[in-house]
Design brief:
Layout lengths: L15 E7 L7 E7 L10 E2 L4 E2 L11 H6 L1 H7 L2 H34 L4 E2 L4 H12 L8 E2 L4 H29 L9 E3 L3 E5 L5 E9 L6 E15 L6 E8 L9 E2 L5 E6 L19 E11 L5 E9 L3 E3 L1 E3 L3 E3 L7 E3 L7 E3 L6
Parallel strand pairs: 8-16
Antiparallel strand pairs: 1-2, 3-4, 5-6, 7-9, 8-9, 9-13, 10-11, 10-12, 10-14, 14-15, 17-20, 18-19
Helix pairs in contact: 2-5, 3-4, 3-5
């Protein structure tokens, strides 16, 4: 028996599901998930799957907190949207051109009044001063406008504007390089199963499992490790107030099994012992809880040496009891016997033999 899930699972946070069995004479019983109208709408999740970002609404922020963003301006700009960067640097370039336009215009007028000679040939108004400023900073090259060799302050001002233009260009190029070289998009090739399973392993222990796989073949992930946290919104028995509890779920930190090699898809397992926060959760009670299991996978991208992070989460309605994942890796039935990975089976599960949850 197998259960198949589609990869479009965003709407699952608002629906409960039932299991429907279909039997035919030629094939074994197939168990499929059918979403139904829930009796209780689930609140918004902490981690949005489509963007792999946390959804937190901040309020009562200190009035001067924006100063922290200004002091760390480079990081703020890296995280800014492209239209903000384009608009900001367009304003910076235009402001610098206009600033030196008025400086060239006023200086040339003062120079003419003192010496009766022009410091800049063929510059006599705002338009010609702006063109001279633009040609100087972007190194287009002078035409019939140029500085007289006897105008020493004009030469000094020319050097100052050239250095400022180089500084702005260098900062912009460095920012663009840092922004496009971030491994943020690398997480899009790291896939997680749409559901998590709770079953009983060969030792008779209850365990929580989910699957992760890497689609990209030509850029391996080095030193990949997984961290799992449980966020539980529950009522405090002493005060009757709801609070958000945060607990780590052990997936092999001490033994080192949290470090994985994503050469093939990997099933991550959390043993539900008496010390586990999930120890009291049962198949009947889980849908009445408000929990979210957040997965954090970090690894070094081999081709760039930068650290990539992928976020995923499972709510109480995305955790199935008495199920286990089916294998995704098989040898091709050819003479070479090449290994193949079927990513269509990433979220496919079968009924576990031990279903006493």
């Amino acid at each position: 028996m197998s259960v198949q899930f589609s990869n479009s699972y965003e709407k699952m946070s608002e629906t409960e599901g039932t299991v429907r069995e279909e039997a035919t004479d030629a094939a074994p019983t197939i168990v499929s998930f059918q979403p139904t109208v829930p009796t209780r709408l689930r609140p918004e999740r902490l981690v949005k799957r489509s963007t792999a970002r946390s959804i937190l609404h901040h309020k009562n922020i200190p009035p001067l907190s924006w100063l922290a963003y200004v002091s760390d301006g480079f990081t703020t700009l890296i995280n800014a949207e492209w239209y903000i960067i384009i608009g900001l640097f367009s304003a910076v370039y235009l402001s610098s051109w206009l600033l030196f336009t008025f400086m060239w215009w006023s200086f040339d007028a003062a120079y003419v009044s003192v010496t009766n000679n022009s410091c800049i040939e063929n510059v006599g108004g705002f338009s010609s001063s702006f063109l001279f400023s633009l040609e100087t900073q972007v190194t287009i090259g002078y035409g019939h406008r140029y500085i007289q060799s006897t105008c020493h302050f004009g030469i000094f001002l020319l050097v100052v504007q050239s250095l400022i233009g180089l500084f702005i260009d260098s900062f912009l190029l460095g920012l663009i390089f840092a922004k496009i070289s971030r491994p943020r998009n690398r997480r899009k090739t790291i896939l997680f199963s749409d559901i998590a399973c709770i079953n009983v392993n060969a030792k008779g222990e209850r365990c929580l499992q989910f699957r992760v796989a890497d689609v990209r073949k030509n850029s391996s992930l080095v030193e990949a490790h997984v961290r799992v946290q449980l966020y539980w919104h529950k009522k405090d028995g002493a005060t009757d107030e709801y609070r958000l509890e945060q607990n780590d779920l052990e997936v092999g930190y001490d033994s080192g099994t949290d470090r994985i090699i994503l050469l093939t898809p990997v099933v991550i397992t959390h043993i539900i012992k008496e010390t586990s926060p999930l120890y009291t959760v049962t198949n009947d009670s889980i849908l009445n809880e408000d929990i979210e299991i957040v997965i954090i996978l970090e690894a070094i991208v081999e081709s760039t040496g930068l650290t990539a992070q992928a976020l995923w989460s499972y709510t109480e309605r995305e955790i199935l009891f008495g199920r286990k994942f089916i294998p995704m890796t098989n040898r091709e039935k050819t003479a070479k016997g090449t290994w193949e990975v079927d990513f269509k089976k990433l979220s496919d599960v079968v009924t576990s033999e031990a279903t006493n949850m």
